[in-house]
Amino acid sequence: MTGRRTGAGPAPDTWIAFDGEEVPAVTGEPVSAALLAAGVRTVCRGIRTGRPRGVVGIGTGEPGAQVRTDGPDPRPMAPATRVEAREGLRVSGLAGYGRLPEQAPARGGDARWAHCDVLVVGAGPAGLAAADAARAEGARVIIADEAPEPGGDARGGGRDAWAAATWQALVRAPDVRALARTTVTGHYDHGEHAALERRGRSDLLWRIRARRTVLACGSTERPFAFQDDDLPGVMLAGAAAAYVRRHGVLPGERAVVAGCHDGALWAAAALHDGGARIEAVADARPRAGAAAREALRRRGVEVRTGTSVLRAEAGADGGVAAALLVSVGPDGTARGEPERVPCDLLAVSGGYDPAAPLAVQAGARLRWSAPHAAFLPEGLPPTTVCVGAAAGTRDAEAAVEEGIAAGAAAARAALGPPVAPPDPVHTGPQGPLAGAPGGGLPEVMRSRGESAQGHGAQGVGPHEDGTGAAPLDLWSGPDEPLDPASSEPVAPPMALFCVTGPETDAARVYVDLQRDAALSDIRAAVDAGMDSIELIKRHTTIGTGPDQGRTCGTVASGITAHLLGRTMDGVGGTTPRPPYAPVPFTALAGRARGELIDPLRRTPMQPWHEAHGAVYEDVGQWRRARYYPQGQEDMHAAVLRECTAARTGVAALDASTLGKIIVAGRDAGTFLDRLYTGNLSTLKPGRCRYGLLCTADGMVLDDGVIARLPDGAYLVSTTSGNAETVLDHMEEWSQTEWPELCVHIFNATDAWAVVSLVGPRSRDVMRRLAPGMDVSQEAFRFMDLTEGEVAGVRARVLRVSFTGELTFEVNVPSWYGLAVWEAAMDAGAAFGITPYGTETMHVLRAEKGFIVVGHETDGSVTPLDLGMDWALSRTKDFVGKRSLSRPDTARGDRPQLVGLLPEDPGTVLAEGAQLIGEDPGPGPPRARSQGWVTSSYDSAALGRSFALGLLRSGRARHGEVVHAVHLDTAVPVRVADPVFYDREGSRKDG
Amino acid sequence: MLLIPCPWCGPRDEREFRYGGQAHIAYPADPAALDDRDWADYLFVRDNPAGRYAERWFHASGCRAWCDVERDTVDYTITGSCGTGAHPAGGPDEGPCTSPYCVRRAVPSGGGAR
């Protein structure tokens, strides 16, 4: 046992299971604390090397202990430092990779949107002070912190009571939302932020739109690299001390502490006070700060300056058993012979990196500050400010002062001057708008790149005297009296990234533990000529692990700078893109899983289809009956039967999904004339006409029948699933090009259910179904629209045909859709009425050569390609008409619609099969494609298979044999006219 | 995601909008009179400035009105927005329109250089 509880913290009140063993734990403490207290050194294994790895850090930055958890907080992969111990929690170490559960995800997710005047990221001293100050100014505030409790980096440092009280006051305050366990994962345009709130079994993904952002997100402790620095028992010094101070957990009995800044010395003092025996304290600097040095001296510990760790040595359990200390130069090069110091805890610290990713995402650049030995953000936009440790300020009192100033300033800027529109005359059409301070644009809309000032902290940043004086550590207690003889109570930190000697094995100097990437990898990258940190990152994979380089990024930059002989700014850091911390896919998906992933639209007749064994097909968002198998029928047999019924008797299709758009208004006819290829203003009420809709480039967007209602308005039908597209298209042209036209457009798709009665006996069914309606050929002609009662319900009936057969398309209000459908089935029973689905519909329309938008068209097909010049008006302009005479659209060798008859009538071609000319012979065909199959079926009426396709110059090639290639087989097919059935159109009247 | 000022609804999330490309490109009065090159220019050729750009947005999940927004393509600063066609290209300079965010009136507040 190497770790233990000091007794200063709470006693264990529960148990967790780690790799099957019971481990006592304090509810709410990080799992890493429980593991350290129980003496668990090896938690997981390296991803490539399989080397044992233990807990390295605390809180955010954890490059070592990656675990999987089950039970009350199930996660496939998480740092042990970020999972709270709870009764029933089962934890297991990961061998590199996490694995998603094979069953449905145990973790839930949800999403929430929020708006605020000031968003404060981080609830340490600076963040708490900023949120409180912003609240006091009257701003709506959101404050978010990753940890379960407030306090940030300063937690466990004597300010916990203040932090807790301030947090509670914020929680209770109106207009403040305080979010614990919430990581702000990204800063996006115009003040938008994403944040992940962890809530036990589920996560909440926040989208927060903030007028102003205060980044008080603290810092991340970084190590420095040396040989075997990955051994269990090698920890970050500040983290090791934090376990003592926050959780009463001592990570080791015999500690060696090595660092290059005063914070590491204070950490040694904390470990001592927690009961550890301090075997040695090494400080790479020539001089340590007097205050920390004196504090250690009073504890009987001398600081060895100019000294660091050359190598860690493993013991029998695989964990650290000794540190080899050596004298080092300013660049970390070992000098002289090392001294072996036995220990079970090697606590190292290379300094503190301000948590800058959000600042960079907001537009800041990182600049190396030698006094801080860290990259600091600068050049933030005026909407964002960085304070506290995130801005390099390590003194808690100073951080609080910065927070107060920044919070108050952010609130005042967000709230703006008293709202007064710049000109009372110029209010919006619906009155003056709220939500725009000063009457103009919310300033977040110009959030980037406008800052004239250079520094992000805007006057409340780090100490500006340039000497680096006074970076008092957050943990330095006010109870430590200074040695009056010392003239330099604090000493500046030193930039130490790596310690090497002549015998160092660079392959075991681990830089990124999560990727098992070492000094040797960086050297290899530099030797290969890479001189950009972005390239080196990709080559070495350093910084691509779960913590995205939080702990190792600056170390990698420092090593690279040394190898290239450049400054830190000459190397820089990699771009910290969102998300800042891993976001589970379950959180991104939220409730959009299974049925809820996309709205499912059902027609009113769905219960009938359900009861009659329909097999479904999803068409866009619509769920449609595809066919209705009887007995043991497969789809092929069912479709042949349904087709036969439609061609010889009577069949019924639920066509409710057809798009239905009402176009009304004085200029509706003119409007449709300009959009559709045909003349529609001349359409008489009660008549229908087929029309094509093109985009300006001449490509077919949609097609459908346009009916003129008795009141003069138009009922435009669209392809199923295309109604919204057509509606948008109409509104765009109406609003942006022809606002002078009086047109009203309304999507009535869901308001009407449609029963399509098809076949030579359909008139007989209509006579029974609508005894009051004259459905004779003389009174109700092809392409007529009639209004009247059908099955006792007011209905619009259209005599249009998508099959070539006599058809009555009965439109009734959706509410009556099911009742009218059932009535039609009853009325048709005597005639053997057969329900049919979309598959039969496709066969029937394809037999007639009727196109379906999305099958025969793909956005690159013109009406001419489809051979539909007959639908184009020659006397008027329409959108896209000019494009049909462009050189490219007018050329003769474009793919054109053709019929295709396989030479073997039993072969049904694969839709999407490519068409080539010659038989390619055995082996994978290599010929150039001349077209493709767009629709392909077996036909009951033809007694054979057939297809439609688009073939280069196809209209001139009827009779020719080409080959349809699918996978590795080529099938000979004969090119034919695309109309296979009833070319005379003799059947449409029954 | 941008925060786009709809002249009718106020600032709204980009998720509610659909993009409509460059603004102020009118459908030619007589397309048949254009030669192939001019017609292709109308169809396909758009400005691509690094800087201020007048573009169209459709408040599809809101009021369903189109508007013209002036946005900087480098830093995404939005200067203003007007109802569609309020200030057509080559139209008379009539001063600000009724939009509270009219590009001819909006003065960025507190933004410094811009």
TrEMBL record, chain A:
Domain FAD/NAD(P)-binding as annotated: residue spans: 117-366
Keyword Methyltransferase in annotation: no
Chain spans, region Disordered: 55-79, 415-489
Any matching Pfam family: GCV_T_C
Residues in Aminomethyltransferase C-terminal domain copies: 896-982
Location of the GCVT N-terminal domain: 606-875
Annotated family: Belongs to the GcvT family.
Name used for this protein in its record: FAD-dependent oxidoreductase
Automatic annotation (TrEMBL), chain B:
Gene3D superfamilies hit by this protein: Folate-binding superfamily (3.30.2270.10)
InterPro entries xrefs: SoxD, SoxD_sf
Name of the featured protein: Sarcosine oxidase subunit delta
Organism whose genome encodes this protein: Nocardiopsis endophytica
